[in-house]
């Protein structure tokens, strides 16, 4: 097959109720670097209802051209109608690379698209690059996260990958950037769409670490499940969520959804407070790009202090309640 017309990178922006997932902007930031190396356009695709502000935001965050499919029947994500729009845009825009977040939705959508195209899909990447032959070097942890495998799709276009949240950096919004918005019609009639989302029930117990601006994470130093209530109080006072080290998760003190690190979630909050966490490398890779890191540990030599912007040496059972009290009093 001749793929010579394929050029540029397409980011599929994921949104719910008009708010984009941070991973989409992080991918756009990383893709701008790749597009510069390829000397190729950076494109974004926004699908939903009343999502035009997101198309504008995509331009401000690095896209040269945004495909916008705005329709009432596309308000909520469903595989078939969304993948139809993506396939249509891929056919029209002919990107050499298509990227989206490795979220529940991104994994579903990317798989659905890849099965309709003569191409492969590298899922859950933590590094992306391009080589001199315009090949996407999509790297992801393999063999129980002991190795980083770089996977290439040599013969087909577009090259497709999903990438983890928190590993790349979003560009700040630049309102002076200009770009083109191309409107796309939904590729299905409303009566062809077999399912309708009536409502979203609250997801019980699931924590959204990926998009949290503040995370208060606890480790073995907590000594059991009960002290996580102290962390929750502090997280609530700061408008954040609770994270955990793998030791705390494996001990059954808290659910796996809360795990930060190599085999958990990679996070990039504005504030990360590590409580009773030593700072093992597998934990650090998941949180070291947080804007501000505060470590609370009774061991002054704990490695976590090497990445912390602020360190408090002392007993967490005294420090955490005192911090919460101070935050609430402000
Ligand atoms: P510890 O290393 O035991 O540290 C506990 C800390 O608490 C100590 O520094 C201690 O000084 C402090 N402390 C104790 N009592 C108090 C107190 N009262 N007040 C203040 N401080 C106190 N780990 C992850 O977190 N995430 C991962 O995704 C992950 N993936 C892994 C993948 C692989 C393949 C492997 C091999 C390991 C992985 N690990 C991961 C495990 C990692 O190597 C460490 O074992 C783990 O991070 C340590 O957890 P911790 O810091 O809670 O415990």
UniProtKB/TrEMBL annotation:
Superkingdom of origin organism: Bacteria
Protein residues bound to FAD: 220, 245-246, 259-263, 276-283, 297
UniProt keyword Transport present: yes
SUPFAM superfamilies named among the record's database cross-references: Adenine nucleotide alpha hydrolases-like, DHS-like NAD/FAD-binding domain
Listed Gene3D superfamilies: HUPs, TPP-binding domain
Record domain Electron transfer flavoprotein alpha/beta-subunit N-terminal: where: 9-197
CC cofactor: FAD
Manner of cofactor binding, per the entry note: Binds 1 FAD per dimer.
InterPro entries the UniProt entry points to: DHS-like_NAD/FAD-binding_dom, ETF_a/b_N, ETF_a/FixB, ETF_alpha_N, ETF_asu_C, ETF_asu_C_CS, Rossmann-like_a/b/a_fold
Keyword annotations of the record: Electron transport, FAD, Flavoprotein, Transport
GO terms (BP aspect): fatty acid beta-oxidation using acyl-CoA dehydrogenase
Single annotated GO MF: electron transfer activity
Family: Belongs to the ETF alpha-subunit/FixB family.
Name of the protein described by the UniProt record: Electron transfer flavoprotein subunit alpha
């Amino acid at each position: 097959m001749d793929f010579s017309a394929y050029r540029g990178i397409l980011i599929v922006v994921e949104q719910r109720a008009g708010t984009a997932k941070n991973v989409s902007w992080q991918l756009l930031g990383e893709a701008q670097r790749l597009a510069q190396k390829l000397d190729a356009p950076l494109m974004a695709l926004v699908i939903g209802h009343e999502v035009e502000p997101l198309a504008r935001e995509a331009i401000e965050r690095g896209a040269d051209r945004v495909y916008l499919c705005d329709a009432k029947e596309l308000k909520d994500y469903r595989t078939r109608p969304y993948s139809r729009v993506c396939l249509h845009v891929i056919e029209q825009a002919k990107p050499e690379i298509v990227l989206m977040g490795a979220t529940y939705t991104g994994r579903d959508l990317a798989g659905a698209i890849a099965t309709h195209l003569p191409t492969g899909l590298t899922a859950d990447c933590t590094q992306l690059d391009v080589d001199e032959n315009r090949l996407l070097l999509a790297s992801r942890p393999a063999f129980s996260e002991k190795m980083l495998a770089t996977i290439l799709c040599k013969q087909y276009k577009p090259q497709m990958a999903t990438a983890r949240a928190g590993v790349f950096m979003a560009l700040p919004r630049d309102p002076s950037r200009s770009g083109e918005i191309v409107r796309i019609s939904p590729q299905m009639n409303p009566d062809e769409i077999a399912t309708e989302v009536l409502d979203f029930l609250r997801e019980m117990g699931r924590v959204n670490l990926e998009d949290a601006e503040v995370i208060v994470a606890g480790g073995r130093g907590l000594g059991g499940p009960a002290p996580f209530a102290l962390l929750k109080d502090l997280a609530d006072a700061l408008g954040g969520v609770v994270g955990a080290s793998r030791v705390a998760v494996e001990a059954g003190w808290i659910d796996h959804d809360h795990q930060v690190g190599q085999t958990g979630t990679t996070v990039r909050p504005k504030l990360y407070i590590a409580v009773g966490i030593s700072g093992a490398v597998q934990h650090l890779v998941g949180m070291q790009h947080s804007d501000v890191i505060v470590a609370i540990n009774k061991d002054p030599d704990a490695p976590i202090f090497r990445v912390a912007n602020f360190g408090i040496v002392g007993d967490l059972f005294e420090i955490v309640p005192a911090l919460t009290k101070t935050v609430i009093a402000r």
